[in-house]
Amino acid sequence: MAAAGIQWAVRMFVFAALVVFAYGATGRAQDKKQDPLREELLKLNSVTGEDAQRTKLVALVKDKEKAKKLVAEAAKMMKEAKGKENPFNYNGALLVAKMAHYLKRYDVAEPFYEYLIESATTLKSGPKMLQAYEGLIDMHWDNKKYDKVVETCENYMDEKGPKEFEQAKPFILERLIQGKAKQGKFDEALRMTEGLIELDEGGWYFLQLKGWVLREQDKLDKAIEIYNEVIDKIDTNKTLNAELKDRLKDRMRYTLTGLHVENKEIDKAAKHLQTLIKRNPDNPTYKNDLGFIWCDNDMKLEESEKLIREALDLDTKAKEKLKKEGKIDEVKENAAYLDSLGWVLFKQKKYKEALEPLKKAAADEDDGNHLEIWDHLADCYLALGQKKEAIAAWEKALKMEDISKRDGERRRKVSEKLKKLREEVK
What we know:
The chain has 426 residues and is mainly α. Among the domains are: 65-80 and 89-183, Serine Threonine Protein Phosphatase 5, Tetratricopeptide repeat (Alpha Horseshoe), CATH 1.25.40; 187-262. Helix content is 79%, strand content 0%. The chain has 22 helices and no strands.
């Protein structure tokens, strides 16, 4: 009996041990299942190749709320790994950095880009070093941290690397010059630009950089002169084929349209756009821009409306083709073109017709968050007598970031209009 009792006790002990082990294993499995975000993040390490990474990034940011959670979790994982082995390899860290950058979580993107620079430098991979540095420079630029743009560019220039890394230094120097111009250090920026032009033996590429700096300095006449000189130099360049020459000249002409608009030379801007439309009849951007600058200056309103509608139609057809090819998931009307349509209708005093495209433009989460779009919407609400809606739209407008220099002046006018309307409502 004693022996049987002992055997029973042993069996019970083994059974209990198995139960505990099984429960523990199940519990650990459940713990893993409770962390799906980390599992998904770690899978990014195995995404290789530019095309696959691009496709994955598009899929990740499509669901913005989930992407925000992934970025927040990635930040925790990076923090936990301090002093230990990083859970992300180069591929995974690159995707997290780009995702955080897209979501404007610059506080998360920055340490990931810095880790990428460190990893690529250790690997002595020229292309990866360039990719990591460019990502960090672009991030600081988008965040308007021009002191950090300059600092990162200077770090690049001081670093030694493989051939691909060294060959890119003149173009990093270009970003450094642009950063200094954004800091208001125009004399230094122009002096450095002249050095690049001299090294390029009077070529066209760095001459356009001089035009860019002069534009930042508000020396519009000189900038226009320089860009016209760039077109002439492209035209006489013997190393460029005819097709590339045409594309480059079109790019310079398009830059000139903006300069002429800023310089209040609407007819000259329109002339360049008419040339571009004639050369590129299926390009919606040129048609939209010409229609917009005309209507914004109360010129040729019917023709403007026709051009803008053509731009919307061309853009939609191009997107439908991309969707058919599986390159995009949905066909969405361009927010800027919708804003143009609403504005040209507003200018024709067709306020009810104008409201719908303006509301659609402002509702676009990706491209509708623009001071000018919300200002137009508020103007339309006010014209329709909807004062509360106008106030709300102008309040929203003032929360938008300035994208161009024109936005500073527009912000001042919006503040004045909002103040006046609030007093009227009171």
